[in-house]
Amino acid sequence: MMVAYFGNDIFIDCFRHLHSGKHHRILKLFSVAYGEGEYDLAQSTRRLARLSGIPVQTTPALPRDLQALERQGCEAIISAGYSHKIPPWCGGAIRYAVNIHPTLLPRGAGPMPLPWVILKGLERTGVTIHKLTDTWDGGDILLQESFPLSGRENIEELLAKSQSLALELLDRFLGAPDAYWHRATPQSPGDREYWPRLTPQDYSIDWNWELGRIERYLRIYRYASQDGVVEFVTDVTSSRKEHPHVPGTLLRVDGREAGSRGERRDRQFSCSDEAAGVTPWVGLSRT
User: How do residues 177-225 score in pLDDT, each as one tens digit?
Assistant: First the structure.
């Protein structure tokens, strides 16, 4: 199948699967270019495309781009993490246009929903493949599958589970696209929940919050620097103990008292838990 791929590194395994398969050919990659000082979230996908001789476009797709794809015999549009609106496709050679989304739609529509899965304390989440329409994440559902959550996942673990399931569902769709296309199920507008992209300010923690809320916010932390170094919280533990410290005080670093020499990896902070009627000891995060 001739396909055009729209996306970044979030679901790069889906791109690799299409690239390496004998039955599919990627005609073009539509991706994004990031500004100076920003970590490039599409660099690996673009690099693989260019090394393979696949044309890459980083400007938003226009109607004329889709018309060009039709003339090339493109049969399918696969979108996974693409941040621009894809113009309406008008059929012709293009028979399928689908998007891969990492929540159980119609709940969790939006550009970056994974942190919300943790913040909301969901017991299950999953991945949806749906038809592309004019409504963001609003098309008929082609495939959807869920997986359970332990309540202790950090953002990297949640992303890894979503990536694995996304690849499985894409492979299933490509094995019988006509069958899935014709039995697609409309989404229920009344059940739709839109989860907006979190801003840097949204990641700020008030150490006076209830302890469970603090732990959830720590687990969604992920920072990628311009040089490609990614920092995230791998685990969060806590215990309750009386202490004299102001909430948010850094108490220990790598098992040493704050101020000791050594790499800053294990960190302990004081916090407050008025809802529990006690003054807890610390939230411990390993980054």
Answer: 999 999 999 999 999 999 999 887 888 888 788 888 888 888 888 765 5
Same domain, 51 and 135: yes
What 177-184 contacts at long range (C-beta under 8 Å, 24+ apart), as own/partner pairs, is 177/1, 177/76, 177/95, 177/96, 180/142, 180/143, 181/95, 181/96, 181/131, 181/142, 184/130, 184/131, 184/139, 184/140, 184/141, 184/142
- DSSP-derived letter for residue 245 is P
Q: 250-253 and 256-257 as β-strands: parallel, antiparallel, unpaired?
A: antiparallel
Global pTM reads 0.86
Domain match, 19 and 136 both: yes
Listing from the earlier edge strand, what are the strands of the sheet with 141-148? 56-57, 25-30, 2-7, 76-80, 96-101, 124-131, 141-148
